[in-house]
Write a structure and sequence with these properties.
By secondary structure, this protein is an alpha+beta fold.
């Protein structure tokens, strides 16, 4: 009898492990009574080069504009996202604390300790309601709230079944203002599932940029791509690590001068998920 019970347990575990390792239901969502501690690191290096007549280049020099103009930005932000107990079996309150921010230029646009309040519901991205922080204007709070809400909208992926070896793609819009012109680009991100081990799904990530903007009187060219990794917690439906490195080049031929932009950027988000005990 003991051998039979042992065999049944072994077969049950084998079947469960086989299902877990072969496929998953991919969706990103926040759950009630959960704590998400995240660190986001971003880097961006860009070179903006002007070309044109000697008179035009001299005017730039007179205005103190360096050619090429080089910017190198590094930033780090630590956040704690806490969800409360469900109030009706569907909805739950949430808070986001900006624990600490840091950048290589010493600027702190978002003050440490800022609190953002909102609510979530099963199967939906959070809705943010208000910001509590001293020393920042109401207009900035409104802008920041809209920006963060937009970020959540980009995470609102359609739920899908993915098997090992399969891929799926998501398109996201990008707007880049440059020289008085807004360049619209579509970023297509492809996720390829490599393996699932111990409840963690390992995806390869690749990205391609496609130019959407057409300006009749100007010539615009843009190319770009990226590579990265995604480690996804299957049971918690959330990222443990998301990392990408991207390169993009853009050229604009305007009336009096040309612009060439080269950019390299990096993004790394790591998260820890734990129980948020309700009091």
């Amino acid at each position: 009898m003991k051998k039979l019970i042992g065999l049944l347990i072994f077969l049950t575990q084998s079947l469960c492990n086989g299902q877990t390792q072969n496929s998953l239901t991919f969706k990103v969502q926040y759950k009630p009574e959960t704590k998400y501690s995240s660190t986001i690191k971003q880097t961006s290096y860009s070179e903006l080069t002007y070309s044109g007549s000697e008179e035009f280049l001299q005017k730039l020099n007179d205005k103190g504009v360096k050619n090429p103009t080089i910017t190198n930005i590094e930033s780090k932000i630590e956040t704690v996202f806490k969800t409360g107990k469900s109030t009706d079996g569907i909805n739950f309150p949430l808070t986001i604390e900006i624990v600490k921010t840091k950048s290589n230029d010493g600027k702190r646009v978002i003050p440490d300790g800022m609190l953002i309040y909102g609510h979530g519901s099963n199967g939906n991205m959070p809705t943010l309601d208000s910001i509590v922080s001293d020393g920042i204007k109401e207009e900035f709070k409104k802008t920041l709230l809209q920006a963060m809400q937009s970020t959540f909208s980009q995470l609102n992926f359609p739920e899908r079944q993915v098997k090992i070896g399969e891929s799926f793609s998501i398109e996201s819009p990008l707007s880049i203002p440059i020289a008085g012109v807004t360049i619209e680009i579509t970023m297509t991100t492809n996720y390829h599932l490599l393996r699932i081990n111990n409840g963690i799904a390992d995806f390869d990530v690749s990205q391609v940029y496609t130019l959407k903007t057409i300006i009749a009187k100007y010539t615009v060219n843009a190319t770009g791509s990226g590579q990265g990794k995604l480690f996804y917690d299957v049971s918690n439906n959330y990222y443990l690590k998301y990392q990408t490195d991207n390169e993009m080049e853009m050229n604009l031929k305007l009336d009096q001068f040309d612009l060439n932009l080269k950019n390299k950027s990096g993004f790394v988000q790591t998260s820890e998920i734990s129980k948020n005990a309700s009091r």
